[in-house]
Specification:
Blueprint lengths: L3 E9 L4 E10 L3 E6 L6 H8 L7 E6 L14 E4 L11 H11 L5 H9 L15 H13 L5 E5 L7 H16 L3 E6 L2 H5 L4 E6 L2 E7 L8
Parallel strand pairs: 3-7, 3-8, 5-6, 6-7
Antiparallel strand pairs: 1-2, 1-4, 8-9
Helix pairs in contact: 2-3, 3-4
The structure holds adenosine-5'-diphosphate (2 copies).
One adenosine-5'-diphosphate (ADP) binds next to helix 1.
Protein name: ATP-binding cassette domain-containing protein
Keywords: ATP-binding, Nucleotide-binding, Transport
Organism: Nocardia speluncae
């Protein structure tokens, strides 16, 4: 089982303490909502966990390792960060195939995962012709490509229509039900509380609350 552990993590840009000495754990088998208004430090924290930025101090590990020490990262952690930024001239299929090859993931996973996110019919179209909602789905396909035990998604509902938002919730619940560690950021507390098991609330780079949600109905 693979947890994310964040310890005394800080990131200071020139003028901003984007992340200010935070501690939390994200555990398997749950959807953990990562909440806070714009500028709270959610994306910075996710980038630090993924080794895309260097912490000013503190540590972030996935399954006890720093991201850069993980051999085949996509097989350990799938992340959706800025889906809107995807504007490859490649087709969705070729875009994912390049990621698969680099991470020793079988090519047949590409077709399977594009079907899984509802892009099967659009697989041979160029990514730069995709709508924002399709880019979100493609980003989720990239995150799931390596069948990873840990999935991190930054605002995955952005650009999705209501049907897409229901789909993303169901997908996240399924992933947690399969025992994966799911961290999903949002600035919408109510929406996230409706499907998350745990909420971590960030404000001005600090953890304001870290709470397990009670289940009133059923037993997920
Ligand atoms: P959130 O994802 O919660 O909206 P961010 O992590 O994007 O928050 O931003 C946290 C703070 O850090 C904000 O004040 C933002 O302006 C600042 N920040 C983020 N990235 C950079 C950067 N590369 N350089 C300078 N400041 C940054
Ligand atoms: P570049 O444009 O630099 O070639 P890539 O898209 O190939 O970037 O990604 C570089 C590395 O980042 C990949 O080898 C992979 O480990 C990691 N990476 C890319 N996409 C994801 C993702 N969705 N989730 C986790 N890691 C990713």
């Amino acid at each position: 089982m693979t947890s994310i552990e964040v310890r005394e993590l800080s990131k200071v840009y020139r003028r901003t303490r984007a992340v200010d000495g935070i501690d939390f754990s994200v555990r398997p088998g749950r959807v953990t909502g990562f909440l806070g208004p714009n500028g709270a430090g959610k994306s910075t924290t996710m980038r630090l966990i993924l080794g895309l930025d260097r912490p000013s101090s503190g540590t972030a590990t996935i399954g006890g390792r720093r991201f850069r020490d993980i051999d085949w990262p996509l097989r350990t952690v799938g992340a959706l960060l800025d889906a809107a930024a995807a504007h490859s001239a490649r087709t969705a299929h070729d875009h994912l195939l390049a990621l698969a090859v680099g991470n020793r993931i079988p090519a047949r996973r590409v077709t399977a995962v594009l079907e899984e996110v509802g892009l099967g019919a659009m697989a041979r179209r160029r990514v730069r012709t995709y709508s924002l909602g399709m880019r979100q789905r493609l980003g989720i396909a990239a995150a799931l490509l390596g069948d990873p035990p840990v999935v991190m998604l930054d605002e995955p509902s952005n650009g999705l229509d209501p049907e897409g938002i229901i789909w993303i919730r169901e997908t996240l619940r399924r992933l947690a039900g399969e025992g994966r560690t799911v961290l999903v950021s949002s600035h919408l507390m109510g929406e996230t509380a409706a499907f998350a098991d745990q909420l971590i609330v960030l404000g001005r780079g600090r953890v304001l609350a870290d709470t397990a949600l009670q289940t009133f109905i059923g037993d997920h």
